[in-house]
Specification:
alpha/beta, five-stranded mixed β-sheet, Rossmann fold, about 20% strand, 12 strands
Length: about 300
């Protein structure tokens, strides 16, 4: 698969915000000088009076959005994931503590800003955001799920963090007919021997791994955990009991991310052997996101290896 072979999540997000803006005059979009690269600029072209660029001032961006939310507006903050972490204190103190309905769309997440290197590659954001009380954390699988998720995200009463990539977006959910609900996971493939749980673009690798495992006589379920917080704990427990083993995969640090969240849930409901596939170090510059996923072993090969370990 080549970089850019599929329509991107940021493109889908930008177009869906315009559609939702046509339905709701209180919807506003704010950014910190990355409107063009994040595709927030689509909203600017349609609704210039409801689009605000505060310049390179992320902390101000968050406080401005909080003020708008406090008077009944529906602000959507669109910025690079890594840059939003610069304003984590304001996100905590001004948005989370007050339970304000600010929606954060974090683009260029994970390794997706491949060319700019480790300084721009956000591999810690899920951990930082899911620890905040009142926050919902969403990681869509592909552009199709971005479109499904956005109406739910915008209508949610509290703050939401949505993590999307730049260009690389394999069609993970294409052909699957399901209703997106915050806090609900979806099953991409049934299986009896192991449950592979992931979110985002790496689910493509989970599906490829399940197909390889099937040829080896191992039946692997693939779970799309598109809401990292709150978790669909009942579904996780069901597959823990059904398969007796789990492997998690994420484009994020294995410390504090999706794997940690799943482990926290499973250990209190029905403990099973687990392995985690994800980042263990900072990123680096590369020609593509796919190159980085393969370089750091967040791919189908590593998932197969982890499944074989846990299956024994």
């Amino acid at each position: 698969m080549m970089q850019g072979s599929f329509s991107s999540m940021r493109e889908a997000m930008g177009k869906e915000l315009v559609r939702l803006g046509e339905l709701d005059p209180d919807l506003l979009v704010l950014t910190a000088d990355v409107g063009d690269s994040s595709r927030a600029s689509y909203f600017r072209e349609k609704f210039p009076d409801r689009y605000f660029n505060v310049g390179i001032a992320e902390q101000h961006l968050v406080d401005f959005a909080a003020g708008l939310a406090s008077v009944g507006k529906k602000p959507v903050v669109v910025n690079f994931s890594m840059f939003l972490m610069r304003a984590w204190e304001q996100i905590r103190n001004t948005v989370a503590r007050m339970n304000l309905g600010v929606k954060f769309i974090a683009t260029h997440s994970g390794y997706s800003d491949s060319g700019d290197g480790s300084s721009h590659q956000s591999l810690e954001d899920i951990a930082l955001m899911r620890v905040l009380n009142n926050f919902t954390v969403v990681v869509p699988a592909d552009p199709i799920e971005v479109v499904k998720a956005m109406p739910e995200v915008i209508s949610h009463k509290g703050p939401v963090y949505v993590r999307v990539g730049r260009d690389y977006s394999p069609p993970v959910t294409q052909g699957f007919d399901y209703e997106f609900k915050l806090g609900k996971a979806s099953v991409l493939r049934e299986g009896d021997d192991v449950a592979v749980v992931g979110a985002g673009v790496v689910l493509w690798d989970a599906i490829q791994a399940a197909e390889q495992l099937s040829r080896m006589g191992i039946s692997a379920a693939v779970i799309n955990l598109s809401t990292i917080k709150p978790l669909d704990e009942s579904l996780l427990e069901y597959y823990a009991r059904k398969t007796g083993r789990m492997v998690t995969v994420e484009e994020h640090s294995i410390i504090g991310g999706l794997g940690s969240a799943v482990a926290e849930s499973v250990v209190k409901r029905y403990p099973v052997p687990m392995r985690m596939v994800g980042a263990t170090t900072f990123g680096r510059s590369a020609r593509s996101q796919r190159e980085l996923l393969d370089h750091f072993g967040i791919n189908a090969e590593s998932i197969v290896k982890s499944v074989l370990e846990v299956v024994g």
